[in-house]
Give the backbone structure.
Amino acid sequence: MKTGEDFSWSDARGELDGLPRDRGLNIAYEAVDRHARGSAGDRVAFRFLSKGGEIREMTYRELSEETNRFANALRTLDVAPGETIFLLAGRIPELYVAALGALKARAVVCPLFSAFGPEPIRSRMEIGDARVLVTTTALFRRKVASWRDELPELSHVLLADATTEQASGTRGGTSLRALLDTADPEYTIEPTDPEDPALLHFTSGTTGTPKGALHVHEAVVGHHVTGRSALSLREGDVFWCTADPGWVTGTSYGLVSPLTNGVTSVVDEQEFDSERWYRILEEQGVNVWYTAPTAVRMLMKSGDELPRRFDLSRLRFIASVGEPLNPEAVEWSQRVLDRPIHDNWWQTETGGIMIANVEGMEIRPGSMGRPLPGIEAAIGRRTDGGADLIEDPDVEGELILRKGWPSMFRTYLHEEGRYRSCFSGEWYFTGDLARRDPDGYYWFVGRADDVIKSAGHLIGPFEVESALIEHPAVAEAAVIGKPDPVVGETVKAFVALHPGQEESEDLLLEILGHARSRLGSVAAPKEITFLDDLPKTRSGKTLRRLLKARELGTPEGDTSTLEEPS
Ligand code: AMP
């Protein structure tokens, strides 16, 4: 693979096959079929570790057949290219089969976190014009059933664990297994324009509804080469990406990139558990491991002795993403695991890794690394129609990227204006503040907006506030991220009650419970403080920053626009 100066995206595209007879580029073909047809057909593509301890392996050839069946099933269900398939199932084989099968059928795939509560799921499926939902009976009952009838466009609910008889109790419900069993295992992917939409991932901003970042089939070029450059994937490797596909990392690097690179991707259905994780690294012979800082900090908490009980000699490369990786974590890994952790940076909108500490490069603990080949990053400030680049080292500004890499999002679904406002001239504004040192390493400083990063999840304060004010006692709510040594930030809410409502411990617990049942464990606040009034600007905007400064005891900054308390 070419790197550095001689890198070009068109050469990178040449590393992929493209659909036979020049019929375009399809992610699922590059990930599955091109291996299935060749000598790699018998290689294990996925090794699924179930919660119950069973291991299910699926070779590239088997995966090709299963995904063909799913693509054919969509045809029988009259699902057209461009329609959206939502996946809400946890990390089970059916989710991966459905994702790749839907891509073959040129449908758009949107995986969701199963830890989301009913409200984030409903709003995302509504914005995303869900046509099909692939889920399990339990998740459907707990998170979807109560509002299912509000989405008339949702024609099919495919239940991964139900028989035909069991599924018949659900409106539009079908047994996924029965559907696959009767579907043809042969399928020819129709011509796919590289610009055809493929993947939809929701992310959050400070205000408004969740944003659906839409990616196209061309993104596979980025997924493929960054798997090699940033994660050091080599054909035949065993690779474990611990992220859930509900987060873009679990799709780009848990699903697409490992397969295009012909490796075996380990998928663990279970949630974090230190001992289990070390055991997986040993027993599965993981060569490359991609995880997140919160998980690393939890491993650190479980002590230095535990990893020494396991043979991690097969582990060649460790990388992490999603939040700042503290220098201590890199040093801990070097000392205890005998290898450093290579931090890298990207976000939902970029679709793939942009900045990384790559293999062989000097790691500066605490730095996100340097831009990958083909990526031009800068520190800048927005100007009318462009950007002012800050050339001096070690000066803070917004991290910006020159647009045009293959996995760049193509729009926010139904929100073209919001999409366009991320760009100025040739530059994409990431919303992150950073600085670059004299040697070109980038250092994360913070977010330019009020979004919260908790355990790697980006949480929009507005979505949480909206759920809080649905509680009858709550008049107003504001939400901030409160620094936490393990998960980065926790969600903290400030709440003003309606006149006549009494503050009490019981009410506080009730509001916490309400938020948790609406939002799920990922986004619900962990802490609530009652306030008589929330500080606002004269124009009525809640000043989350001021609340945060007061909470942390840091300077309050400019309060000249603050409304006089009533
Ligand atoms: P998401 O779109 O949910 O993947 O979140 C992307 C955001 O996570 C970025 O804009 C950053 O704020 C943060 N992030 C991702 N990777 C890193 C990293 N290596 N260091 C610091 N923050 C990161």
